[in-house]
Every structure is written in structure tokens, then in C-alpha cells.
Amino acid sequence: MRSFLDRVRAPWRSGAARRLALDVPLGLLVLAFSAVFLRAARTPGRFPEGGPEGGPPWKGPGWGDGPPWAGADPLPPEPLAFACIWAVALAVALRRFYPRAAFAAAALGAAVFVAEVGGSGPILAGMVVTAYTMASLAPLRSWAPWTAAVLPLLLAAGVGRPYLGLLEASTYAVAVPYTTLLLAALAVGVTVRGRRENALQERREELRRSAYEERLRIAREVHDLVGHSLSVINMQAGVALHVLDKRPDRVRDSLAAIRSTSKDALEELRGTLAVFREGDGAAPAPAPGDDRAPLPGLDRLGELAARMESAGQRVSVHTEGSPVVPPAAVDHAAYRIVQEALTNALRHAPGAEARVRVGYERTEVVVEIENGGAAVPEHAEGSGIAGMRERARAVGGNLHAGPRPEGGFAVRARLPLGAPRSGR
User: Fold this and answer.
1) What are 17-39's pLDDT values in tens digits?
2) With contact defined as beta carbons under 8 Å apart, do 422 and 326 qualify?
């Protein structure tokens, strides 16, 4: 019982007022026109011979003296016919809350009306509207059996005739157009529902793709950040162990560098992973005075070079051209590419000097990282280079990495500036 009540109340939980504001006037319109048709049908001599189905009232002889309510007194109204009109009008008003029940009510109400009055008139419009709504809101397999409710309507037109009029051509002359109109409404509803579902599926795919790309971006951030920080910490720890007995005074400097590097890495990692807390709605509001740095860019290459030098890696940074502020994504990608390249140099060529060149061209920023060292006979691309290339590709650029003929390794990335802001 509770589940049944929940299903009844479910459509009223969201957007009910807006749907009623659109559908109630339509139901009242069906009610008004059907009532006018019923009054005309109950007025003697106002329809051509043969009843309301014999032709349009305005073309028959019965309308010569004016509208039906202007002359002869109508016959007493049929309460059952009015009840059918109200049932169809109510079904139209509630069609988007209970689409299948509304269609069944409209079809059965129209069937009883046709059998009682002898004509259909505007009341069939209510059945067509509810049929469209049912097909556009519910899956085909859920409403297909409900179309059997149309059968009483088709048979009602032949009430009082031999064999319900199934042997008369006039029956089919009326039934075929009505059936065609009903099938057209159902077909349009199915088409609208299919397009809506396709659009929703495309939206879901886009959201899944965006979520995957965001996870991939965070994975690259964590890889670059953790890899760089651990490499620097490992180098500093090695230096501290090396000078522990010979020059104890330098141990303090190494430990201070380890502390600074780990602190910066933790703060940056906390900012990178905050997106997961925000996605769960559990992210705390920023505290006043929170000076967490934004995503690093090329303006922080000096800090990066100083951190690498504290680990024993000599780094020189040169800038060519007129510096501009690239788009944030390009700026951050360039920084991470330099960071990863210097980390690889620290791992594979410790002690060799690394040179960083940042060239600002008209439409691109070119970042080059070179380091000396022994020649690399065979170049096996690892995850670090693949990550750098993916970063460059993500912002519309490209990256080339490989050994230098004279020894060492070189990384060159060209990233688009887009519409940069001048003045760094």
C-alpha cells in the first residue's frame, strides 16, 4: 500500500505547479469546446439530417436561423455525456502526472461520449493530446498495452447498428481517419522521447568523459608533484648522509631543504586533491587568511631552479622575447613540463647542468630544457615523457624529447598562447 501511495505522490514532488499552469488551461479548452458541441448536438433541427457526423454544421440546412443556442430550445443535457467531457478534460490537465492512466481515461470517456451523443467533436482532441504525452514520457513497452483502450471508441461509433456497423463503409470512413490521427500522435511522441533520450545520453557521456579527463589530469598532477618532490628529498637525504661525518654543519641545510620541499609538496597536493572533497560536498570553506598558492606557472621557475640547486642540480633559466601572461592552462602545463624534465635530469644525470629556455613568440611559447651528461645510446620513453607530451597535447601544443648528439637529453615544447595578456 505504501509503495502504491509513493508512486501516486511521486509526480507531484517537483515542477507540479509549472506543469499544471500549462495543462489546466488546455483541459479547460477541451471542456469548453466539447460542451459547445454537446449543446449543439442536443438542439433539435440544428444539424443536417443524419446527425452531427453528416457534415460540418455550418454547411447544413439546420444552421440557417443562427447558432443552435439562438433559436430552438435544446433537449435536456445528458449527465453521462457531461461526465465524459469532465473526465477527458481532467485527463488532459493531469496527463503529465499519470500519462497512461490519463490516456485510458480520455479514450474510454470519448468512447462513452460517442455512444451517448452519436458524434465525437472536440473531445477526440483530448485523447490525441494524452496519446502524444504518453508516448513522449513513457517507454514503448510500458504503454503499448494501454492502446487497447481505443477499441471501445472504435466500436462505440457503431452502437445501434447491425454488427456494430462493422459491415458498413461509413464506419471505416470515420474510424480510419481517427486511427491515423492517433497513430500520428503516438509516432510523434515516440520520436520526441527518442531525441530526448539521445540528448540525455550524450550529456551523460560528456559528463563521464569530463570526469575521466579530470581524473587523468589529477593523476598527472600527483605524478609530477610526488615524483619531483621525492627526487629532491632523496637527493637531499643522500647529501646529508654523505656529509654527516665530514661536514656536520651542512646537514642542517639539507634537512631544512627537505622540510621546505615536503611542506610545499603537501600544500600543493592538498590543493590538487581538494576537488574530491568538493565533489562530495564535504570541502571546508576557505579559512580567512588562507594563503594557499594557486597553480604554479612560468613565473615560479626561479623558485623551482633554486629548489633543484639546493638538491645539487645546477639550473640556469633564460627568457627570450617579450614576456606575456599565457592562459592559465598553458602557463601551468609549461611549468609542469619544466619540472618533470628537471626531475628526470636529477635522476639520470645528477650534477650535470640543466639549461631552461623560455621563448615568447607571436603565437606560441617555446620551452626548452637541456642537460649535459653522457650520451644516451638508446632512448626508451617512460611515463614521465609520456605525461609531458600529454600535457602539451591537452592545451593544443606538441612536445619532442630525445637524446642530444653531443650528449645529454633535450625536451622541447611548443604551446599556443591563445589570447595572452601582456605584462608578466
Assistant:
1) 777 777 888 888 888 888 887 77
2) no
How is 116-180 classified by DSSP, letter by letter? Answer: HHS--TTHHHHHHHHHHHHHHHS-HHHHGGGGGGHHHHHHHTTTTSGGGGTT-HHHHHHHHHHHH
Q: Which of 85-94, 121-130, 294-303, 372-381 has the lowest mean pLDDT?
A: 372-381
User: Dihedral sign, CA of 341, 214, 266, 325?
Assistant: positive
Best CA proximity match to 179, nearest among 159, 143, 155, 145: 155
Q: How many angstroms separate the CA atoms of 200 and 400, rounded?
A: 40
Q: At residue 33, what is the residue type?
A: F
Tell me the per-residue pLDDT of 85-140, one tens digit each, with 9 for 90 and over. 898 899 999 888 888 889 888 888 887 887 777 666 788 888 889 999 999 988 88
Q: 410 burial class (0-12, 13-18, 19+ CB within 10 angstroms)? A: middle
- What pLDDT sits at residue 422? 46
Contact, 341 vs 392, CB < 8 A? no
The one-character DSSP state at 98 is S
The answer on pLDDT for 49 being more than 60 is no
Q: C-alpha distances in angstroms, 423 versus 104, 232, 324, 360?
A: 70, 32, 5, 12
Sign of CA dihedral 201, 206, 207, 211: positive
Identify the bridge partners of residue 356 per DSSP, sorted by sequence position. Answer: 317, 369
**C-alpha gyration radius of the chain:** 39
User: Which run of H or of E encompasses 188?
Assistant: helix 169-243
The secondary element (H helix, E strand) that includes residue 310 is: helix 301-310
Q: Give CA–CA dist 30/351, Å, rounded.
A: 88
* pLDDT of residue 174 exceeding 80: no
Nine-digit cell string for 299: 613565473
Cell of 197: 533520450
Q: Rounded to an integer, what distance in angstroms lies between the CA atom of residue 293 and that of residue 341?
A: 22
What's the angle, vertex CA 64, arms to CA 62 and CA 67, rounded to 5?
80
- The whole-angstrom distance between residue 287's C-alpha and the CA centroid of its chain comes to 32
Mean pLDDT of 223-252: 76
3-class DSSP state of 412: strand
Specify whether the CB–CB gap between 372 and 408 falls below 8 A: yes
